[in-house]
Every structure is written in structure tokens, then in C-alpha cells.
Amino acid sequence: MASTQQSAFEYVQNGRALLEGHLQKPSLVVDEMRKNNIFSKKQVREIKFHKNRSVKTRKMLDMIIKKGEYASYELLKILYNTRNQTLPRTNPTQNQPRHPDLHQWISCFSFTDDPDLQSGLVSESGPCERYKRQLRTKAVEFLHAKWDQHMHFLEDKAKCKPFTYIPVVLDTDSSELSKTKSKYKKARSKKLKTYIPRDKGKLSPGHLLESSEKKILLVGKPGIGKTTVVQQVLNIWAENENPQESYMFYFDEPSMRSMSHSSQPSSLRSLLFERYLKPEEGAEDVVLCDIQNNSENVIFVFDGIMDVIGNPVLNNILAKELLCDAKILTTCRPEAEDCEFLSDWPSYRVEVQGFNNESIHAYLKWRLGTEDDYVCSVASNDALFSLCHVPMYAFIVTACISFSPCEAKNHPCTITEMYVRIFRHCMKRHGDQNVEYLDKYIHDNMGNIKFLAINSFQALLAKTVNLTEMDCKDNSVQHAFLTSSAAKESSTGHSFAFLHNTMQEFWAALFLLMTPGNITSVLQQCQTEEGKYLKYIVSFLCGLLSSDIAELINCVVPEDQIREISDIYLEKVIDSFLRPAILQGHDESHTELDADLLFVCQCLYEHQSPKACSLLLQKVEYELDLSGKYLDPQQCCAVSYVINQSTNKNVCLYLIDCTFSDPGLRLILGSLKNLQCLRLDPTTQCQVWKAALDSGNPSDSEGLLRLCEYEIHLRVMEKQDQKVWERVGEVLKHKRPEKVKFCLHLVDNSLHAANSLGKSIFDHLPNVEAIRFVKPVDLRRSLVAWKMEVRSFQQDILLHGALYQMETGLKRVEDLQAVLCLASTYSLEEQSKFILSLYQHIGKYENDEGVAVLPTLQTVFKSFPAVWYIHFADTKASVLLDVMKLQNVKKPVELWWSNDECDMSLIHCLPYISQLRFNDCILIQYDDTKGTIEGLLKLFCFAKQRQLETGEETLRMLSTVCSYSNFPFASDNKDEQSDFLLDLYSSAKSFELELEGQILPSLLTVFQSAQPAAWVLDLGTDKASILLEVLKLQTEKKPVRLKGWLETDQSKIESFLRCLPYISQLRIIPQDESDTEVKMPTLTSEQLKRFFLLHLLDHGDLDNTETGQSSVEELLSVLGFAHSDDSPERCLFLLDLFSHGKDYETQTGRKVCHALLPVYRSAPAVWSIDLSERKGSLSCNDQFQLSLWGALPVGSEWDAQLASSLLQALDYTITLSGWLPTVTCKAVGAVLGQSAPGEKLNVSLIPDSISFQGAALLFKQVKEFHKLKVNEMSTAKLARLARSMTCRRPMVVEELTLVLSRSIPKEGVQCRVLSGLALLLRVWTVRVLNLIDCPIQGFLLTTLLCHQGPLTIRQVSRSSSHLKKYGLLFCEVCYCFERWVCVCFHDRLSKETRQQLAVVVYEAQDEELTQCFLEKSGSDLSNCTLDWDVLHYLLKTTTPHNPSPSTSGGAESETNTYLISSLC
Q1: N or C: fewer beta carbons within 10 Å in the chain?
Q2: By the 8 A CB rule, do 307 and 334 touch?
Q3: pLDDT of 1151-1183, one tens digit each?
Q4: pLDDT tens digit sequence for 336-358
Q5: CB neighbours of 1296 closer than 8 A, spacing ≥ 6?
Q6: What CA–CA distance (Å, rounded) separates 832 from 614?
Q7: How many other CB atoms are there within 10 angstroms of residue 334's CB atom?
Q8: Residue 985 near residue 1030 (C-beta atoms within 8 A)
């Protein structure tokens, strides 16, 4: 507060007018005066009697002035203490006429007798407060200077206009929009830009000033209003004294450019006191200390951050390393937001988006005054109006109109043309020339113009707006365009800047026009991250190349030269921004730049050339994909212009996820006639259709219908312009081949709009194909709530349709039902909810209005649902009964209930129910079988009681609706239906015990009618006895599926066996491994039955008198093997059963086959086995195989097909052992002859005795074996056959295996066997000789040396001592076999064996033997630890064909390993 020498009485009298007009809450002041005994109660009542605030204040002041000095002084004290409530301040957030700041007024009075208030006066008059006033004074002077510069281009009458802030749109939504890629786009590598959000908040500069955010970033394109916003923040701060925000430092763009690339200022003191404002003498330390200690009261405004901040002080402030609690406001262009510094600078992002429609009109009226003709002419010109959304362009438009109405007669529609007019006007004013002599004056000053253009271009390349080394003479042309810069340069020269940086870009484009050789370089720089800001020059350049503008700048560059430049460079401009470029950045990494199709359209709009637009459309194949973009009105104007230049072919336009303003949409609508297709997302379609209907132009609506496939998207709101609905009706009244589809987007509280929609479409409803509702993208409400709103809207429109039909007599209810697609849109469950809700809605309307609407809607109620889905938690049975009576048709009812929700009133609905189901209640919704059963039993009890009380056949009706084959389900659910019925029977029995009443007889028809495909019994539970009782209720035998039988006990098995007389067929379900610890292999059906029988025989007592042999027979019968059945299947099953029973006894030690003896004793005398039908292999032992061979018919009765089937059943595997008579050999030989070529025939011939003739018959018809196993006996006979010239036959054996009867045969036996093998090898073709199971000593293998041909011998490795003894001889054998035999080691040699073998080779010291050893071992000595001598020898003898052996191992071979790895 400031001091004053006036008395309190004089101060109140002098300020009376202020108080009467602006004092707030006078009643509060009166109450405080009453507390201090200044006013009496009567005086308080007199003052408060008046209702008007001003009258109250006047009455109060009259009383106080009459009371004199003391009362006046008390009043001033009260006003000071309650100043935040009673004394208004200038509101910084509202555009209202400003009132005096009474806070300042009260602070000017000196409360000399009050120490507390006086201390406040003293504190407010210190050096810090005086510096704050200095800052405010500087801010006001700075704003006035900037405003004067802004008005520089206007006529004198406009200069007197005060600074006025016209609001611009500020948006804080930082959500990222997804981009739809087209064929000429590439994915961004950086974050996506943000655009206008759906939920727009109303922000103002006052909000930014008062916000608690400490780091605020304002982003916007050139001229959009960023500087205007921060200057308004500065203006608000300068006009108000807020102790919490007392210091503000504003650095404009020239100052920022100057400091960003300089090391000065080097400290906070120099930045604030030398660069900005110096405090009074001797106060610097105090002020700086206060700023540092109370940094929360400091605000920095950095207007125009470009890219890199090279100044350390600015960096530290922005990084919060200096004055960490200070508020920072920064502004930048969109391209600077992606720079390294700002991209990592966390901030509260605000996007400046320019003027909206209201602001444009307000700005035009403010600038053009009462000249409404000019305002209307601009507003009616869509192209010109679209430019005005950018405040800078709005200023230039109004400037052109204000200073040259004649020249602006046609109102320039391109940005470049406006800047050219500004250029010509400034030159005209500077030279004081008439229009007819202006071109000559410009031409005479070309030297100065070119000098200014060069400096503008060079400054732009240096990323600065400050132009130095300019001519300081007053008559220089530069003074017509430049103003003195606020930046303080270190050099002695002056610094100048343009009014706006867009004017600098215009002059840089003018320089390129004068020096076209630089255009290519600029285009290349535009494709880099560092130089992409230069693209704004290109836009101006394209405008300067326009033939329309060439006439205006002919005095600067000749028209012929302009046309020549246009022909050379225009296509290069299109290609530069249309084709994405991948360029090298500073970090040598690839940077992907987006193709900027939208910018190309803007350039072509500036150029105003249909030929250039056609060239662009050809390059993009007439497809303009602008999906995901924010299109301001001027950009929409450019896109519309390009589309309208297409004359030969229509264009495809993609605008998915785009955002527009209303003027922009109107411009897009103007190009519909030139579009072939228009792709829009549903939200965008709503915007476009609203603009089309608002325009009232029928051609817009018709064009949209054609392009949108006859879909009309509308946002339905409670408060909606009725003209929109009227125009919808006008669109519908035209008859077309295609019907219209309505797509409605419901917003909150949109129910009352149904009446408006109905009125617009009821007259033309036959022209509507469908009405559907679009699911919202941003679910601010739940999906369930949206569905309920849609349902209510449909019900409301049906109600209005019925009223319309009653009023006009036109059948509209049926048409409405068809276009709403209720039956196809809703599920059965939703259909039931809809009908019941509709009935209640109509009933409420009838009760309120007294109008009977229900009869008119009969067709709706009778059309659906086909099945009632009733959830008694949401539905009353009384409502259901009313609707059922209305329909008067029996329908199935699907109940969703639990025990607690069952409604006994359902009994009244039974006459209208055909089936009672619990499908979803059990299977889907609750999985509560127990609760469902309990509710059903209660319903039966209630029905029985009601029947006794009323005599109605309630119980019979309930039993009837439950008596159907699939009860309680809608379809066949095998396991679930069986489980439910068994649980129902069990619960009914328990229910009878609790209630001591009979309920099972009522359920008899239910169980008899239920026809599950098969009863399912889990033998692991106690339901076998329940199943028995239920099966007894059935009128015929039923199939049963058995599961859970692996883990059961004897009592449960016995209970199950009692069910066998009532079972027609038993199917065994494989045990699920997850349900039991017993693991089962995958079995066929027959194997599963066999396994089940054996398991049952093992765990159940089937041998007693009660169950005995009859149980086994019954089991076989229900399994499909009845006693009277002598089929091959039964015989084969019994054979397999007995065989596996024996195996089972062998494995488990338990006796199970004795229980099967009665079955086998009653078996048929003749066993019939059809092997051709057998799918699995025949499992039988050697003796049984011999029996089979003996039973086979030979001679004329030989059955080749039977032999082939038998061989296939045995899986082509035959084992012949023991004594083999000649007749058996003959039969087996015949069977072997039936094997087809390529079949893998496996024969084990290990007889105790076989004749030479038998061996000859055995191998007479076979030519190939996959595997052949022989012993000493068979080897001798086969060798004899090989020596016989008459019996010798060629034979191919893939693997010949030799087994000996003794583990350690005599040496003579080994020699004879190997001799016979050698003979066989000479006659037969043997691939592999398997001696793994044959204990033959290694040195005896020399017998096989006579073999000529490839052969692999498999022999198990011996112990180290054995290898030591025979190693050398074995290696010699390997050497001898080198060219013919490959020796393989089974299970691979161990580490010790391999090491021993290597040592043996070393001791032999034979080079050829060593190479043979390395070859056979693959030179692999991994894990071997060898002495250096051995290793050195092996390496020395390595040939180029034998790579060096690789070793690894212990410490003593580490040097060897290194040497070998280097040799390899």
C-alpha cells in the first residue's frame, strides 16, 4: 500500500463514487460495523431493507459520513481486512469492461494508529516492491511499443485503437492421434503431434497465469497467436498486484534468438539486471536474494524457442536448476517441439489454434468498426474467411481492406497475395507515391530491396529474426518494413526485426525468386530435421510464382523469368514434399520424414494453377489420404481447391480420424462433385453431415448421400436445432433407387430428441432402410449404460410412431419395427428385456396421459421374442404375465435364477409356457446347478400346494412344461443333462425327507420324458445307486457312458453292476489324465474295453453268487460282445483279452483270468477271426503264432487274402522259435511270399531245430527283409543254402542281426558262425551287420575280410583291458576294411576307450593306420586328455583331407588346445 496524508473522513468522501459503484457484499461490511458498535440494530435493519446493492452502499455511506472521522476510519479498516471479499479486482479471465482496482485504492490509505497495518505499509515500500513496480512499468511500456509496431502498417485512424485481446482457442489435450498410412507416407520415428481434442476446455491467458503448473509450453504455427497470448498474460500481470506472482520477466523472440546462440548473459544477475531491467542503486543484492529465496513468486516468459538453447543460464532456468520453483511459459512452432531439447522437456502442453468463428467476427468488427459491408463481404467469402482463423492473417486482411478499399475490391484469397499487397503499400507510403508511379519507384529501389531480401534469407538460415549490418539512414527502404529489435547485441551495430517472422519468410522467398539457383538447396534442407522450418519459405515462393501475382511483382522480377522458374522448379517442389526422404542426421542414423501432402496442397493453392493441381493428382493416383490430420479452415480451402481442379477423373478423399472447424467443413462440401469416394470415420461423418444440413444446400446433402453409401450420421442431443431435423425431412422426401440408412450417435440426455427425429422421418418412413445406433468411441459412460439409452430411445420413437399412426391413420408402427431391426439387432435375452421394458414404458405413458397406445403396438409385442429369457432379479413375474397375455401364444421360457431369486408367481404364467428351460443359468451365467434344482423343487411344492388349495391343475401344467427330451436345456447337452437329472432325483429324495411329503411322483413324467443321448455316470462318485433308481423309471433300456472308472472301489463297482440289466449299451470314456494320477496310454476303442474289463476284474468281486458269471456276460453284452454272438470281432476280442489278461497277471501278480473261465468255456466251438477287418496289430506269443501257422490251409485250399491279412495283423513281424516242422516252414514261407514290395518285413528265425528243406521252403518266395535275426542253428542252415547251387537265391537284408544262445560261446562256435556269416555276405546284399548282442572276440572278425562291398558292422565297445589286448589287431582290421567296410561303434566309445585307442595307434607308428583311425573317428577326440607326444604324432600325420583333431580337457592339454585351434 502507498501512504497518503488525507484523513479517513476525507478519504471516504473522495472515494464514495468508487464504493457506490463497485463495493461487493455491503451486508458483510454492515455486520462488521455492528460488531464494532458503529451501527445500531435499527440502522442495520434500515440498510438491509433495501434489495439493491448500490442503494445499500449509498445508505451505509450516508450514515458513516454523518458519524464523522472515527466511523470513517473503522470503515476503512474493515474494508482493508475484508478486501478479498468486498473490494473487486480487475478480472483477468473475462472480456468485460474493466473497473477500478479497489485493492490499490485501499492500500493508498495510511493506517497510522494501527501498528499491524503500518508494518504492512513499510514492507510494501521496500526495494523489492519498488522493483516489482519497475517491472510492471516496463511491461506496460513494452506492450505499448509492441502495439505501436503492430499498428505500423495501418492508417492513422486505426492507430488510436487500444490494445484489445480477442480470445484464441487454447487446447490442453495431449492425446496422440493414430495416423492412417498411405502409399506415399512413412511411419513417424518421433512422437505424433496432438490436435484439437473432442472435449474442449475453455482456457484463457488468465488461467495460464493462475495455473499451478510450473512449466507451460504453448505450441502453434506461425501467426496463430502464441505471442498474443503471452503478451496478454503479461498485460494481466501488469494491471494486477498479486503478491504470490510478483516478478515477471518477458523475453521476446528477438531476445531469445540473440541469447540462444551466445554465452552472454553468463549469470542470473546479468540476465535479470543487465539484459532485462536493473533495479535502483544498491538494491541488486536484496532483490536477487528475494528472487532466489522466493522463486515460487517468479514468472519467466520465453517467447519463441527455436531449437537449441546454447546459453547456460537459460538452460539452467529451463531445467529448473536455477529458481526451481519459478513458473516458465515458453512458446514454439510445431517443428521446434520435436527438437532435442523440447522433446525431453516435461511440460503442461497448450496448443494455440487461432480464432474460432465467434472470434473472427469479433476481430473483424473491432478492426473494421461499423463498416458492416466489409465485415459481411469477408464473412461471405469462404476462402478469405478461412484465412482469418490465423490472427496474423486476419490482421493483414483487415489491413488490406482498411488502407486500400479500392485495391482490395476483390479481396485477396491467398496469403502470398496479401503479403504482396502489404509490400506494395509499404513501398507506396515510404516513397509517398501514387499508384500509377509505384512500379517505377519499386524498380528504382531494387538495390535496397535485394539487400533486405538477402539479409532476411541469411538471418533465417541462422535461425534468428534479428537483422544486423543494415543501413541506418532514415530514408532507407528497410524502415518501411523493419523496427528496432529489443535484442541487445554485443556489437556496436543496431539490430532490426520484421513486424512478424512470417514477413521475414516472405522476404526470404522474394530472395529465392531473385536468385533461383538457391531453390534446390533450400528444398534439400527442408528434407532434414534441422532445416524443415524452411518449408514456409517454399509456400511463399509458390505464391510468388503464380501468374496472378506476377503482375504485381513484375517491377521486381520480370514475368517471363517468373514463368521460367515456375516451369523448372514447381514439380521439384511437389516431389520434395510428396516423396518421403530418408536422410542422414548428425548421429549418422536414418531419420524418416513424413510425406507432407497437406503442405503440398497449400503450396498449390498459393500458386493458383489448375495444371499444377492435375500434376499432383496424377502423382498420387487421384487419392488424397489426409487421415489423422487436423485441417484448419485455410488448409480445407487448399484441399478443396486442389480437388476442384480435377476435370478428367474424380478424386478419392480419405479423412478418417480428421478434425475440422465449421468453416473448413463448408469448404470441403464445395468439392463433393469432384469426388469419386469419400472415406470418413463415424465421428467425422457426424461433423460433415451437420455442416451439410446447416448449409441448407440440397446439392451438399445429395453429394454426401452418394459418397457415404446413403448413410446419414447424426449426433442426437437433447437441445438440438430443429432446423436440422426439418432439413433431414427435406432430404428424405426425395425418392431415390436406394433407401437411406440413419446412423445415430447418442450423447448424454438425448431421449427427448426421439420426438424431433420422428416428426422429421415419419412422413417419409418408406424411404428409410434402417435406423441403427453407432457405438461411441470414447466410452465416457459404460457400454451397458449406452445400450440402455439406445433401448430407451427406440422405445420412445416407437411410442411417437404409434401416436403418429393414431393421429394420421398411416401404418407406421410396422415400418418403424422394420427399420429399427429389433429382432435381428438384439439377442434373445435382449429381446425379452426390450419387450418387457417397452410394456412398462407404454403403461407409464398411458397412466400419465390417459391415452391407450398399447393396441396400436400389438404387432411389435407379437413379433418377438421366440424364447423368453427371464431374470427374476430384474423382472417381475406380473409384468411377464401381462405381456404373455397380450401375446397369447405359448413360448419356451429360459429362466435365470438361483434359489434366492425364484419367484413363485411364475406359476400364473404356466398357461403361456411351452417349455421351462434353465440352459444359460446352468451352463453360462451362474453354473449353479444346486440353486437351480432347489428353486425348481420349491416351485413344484408350491404348485402342489396351490393345486390342493384351488383345485387348478397347476402341478400337471408344471410337469408338462418340464417334460421334454432335452430338459432342462434347449438342445442336447449329454453330460450336463445327465448330471442335472441325477442331481434332481437325489435332491428330490432329500427334499421329501425334509418336508415329509411326496414330490417324486410329480417328477415321474419329467424323468420318463427326458431322453438324454446317453446317461453319464462318473464311477468315482456315489451316483451309481441314483442312476439305478432313475433307470428303473425308464420304460426301456438306455445307453450309458462310463467315466471315472480308473480310481474307484469295490462297493461302487457293485452298485454299477446292478445297473447292467437296464443298460442297452455301455461306452467307456477314456480317463482324463488331469483327473487321476494313473497314466494311461492312448488306446483304441477295443483296447479301452479290454483294459476296462481287466481293471474291473482286478478291483471288483465278480465271482460271488449275486454278480458272478452273469455280470461278466452282461458286461460283454453291453460292450457289444453278446454270448450268442460268434462274430469274428467277439472271437478276436476274447483272444486279445485272454492274452492281455495273462500279461496283466505277469506284470501285477494278480489273478484275473479265473473270472473269465466261464466265458471261455461257453465260447463257440469254431473260432472265427476276420483279420482283414482288424485295424490294430495282433498281440500273441510265439507258441500261438506257431499254432496259427499250423492251422493255415495249404495246397489247393490256400487262401492268399487270408495270409495277407494275417501278415498285416502281425504288423509284418514274425518270430519263429523252438522246433519248426517242415509243414510250418512251408506255411510261413507262403505267408512271407504275400508281402508287398516295400513292406518292412521283420523275421526272427531263432529255432532250436529246423531242417534244410524247411529253411529252403521258408525263404523260397521272399526276396527282401527289413530285419532278419538269426542264431547259430539258422545261420548254419542258411549258409548251407548259400552253398547249394539249386537253392541259392539273391536276398536283400537291410539289417542282419546275430544272436548266440550262450553268453560266452566257445571259440570254435564263434569261428563256425562267422564263417557262415561270411558266406551269406558274399551271396546276399547286407547293409548292416549287427553284432551288438553277439559276444564275438574282435580278432575273429578277420574272417569277414573276404567281403567285397559296403557294409556297416555294429559292435559294442569292450573294456579297456580287452581293447588293450586286441586293439592293434582291431586297428589292422579297420585298416584292411578301409576301402570296403565302415566300422561303427554302438553307443559311441567312452572317453577312456577313445584315449586307449589313440595310444594304441600311436604305439603302432603307422602313418596309413593313423590316417584310417582319424577318418573313422571323424578326427573327434573331444574330452580326451592326451600326452603331448601322442597329440604331436596325430597332428604330424594329419593330411589335408583329415582336419586336425580337436581336443579339450585338463590342465596339461591347455597349450595343446591352443596350438590345435590355431592350426584349425
Answers
A1: C
A2: no
A3: 666 666 666 656 555 555 555 554 445 555 566
A4: 776 666 777 778 888 888 888 78
A5: 1268, 1270, 1317, 1320, 1324, 1326, 1328, 1329, 1330
A6: 58
A7: 15
A8: yes
